[in-house]
Amino acid sequence: MADHATVVYETAPGNDLAQHEATYRGFLQLVKWGVGSTALVLVLMAIFLV
């Protein structure tokens, strides 16, 4: 195992780094909106269900 070469992912063939970054940005936006929506629902529940 020690004799294996180190893989350089930026230059690996077939690696679409721009698409990976776009997918990650979309995931972060989904998480951001999900957390915000959950917080809003909790705040509204605290106001109207008390």
Brief characterization of the structure:
This protein has 50 residues and is mostly helical.
Structurally, the number of domains stands at 1
Number of helices, where a helix is a run of at least 4 consecutive DSSP H or I residues: 1
What portion of residues is helical? Answer: 55-70%
- The averaged pLDDT comes out at 87
Q: Which blocks of ≥5 consecutive residues have pLDDT under 50?
A: none
State the end-to-end CA separation: 62 Å
Order of helices and strands: H
Number of strands: 0
Write up what this structure looks like.
- Residues 4-49 form the Cytochrome c oxidase subunit IV bacterial aa3 type domain.
- The chain is mainly alpha-helical and 50 residues long.
- The protein contains 1 helix and no strands.
- It has one helix at 17-48.
- The radius of gyration is 21 Å and the shape is elongated.
- The model has no long low-confidence stretch (mean pLDDT 87).
List descriptors:
1 helix; single chain; mainly alpha; 50 residues
Describe the protein's topology.
Blueprint: H1 17-48
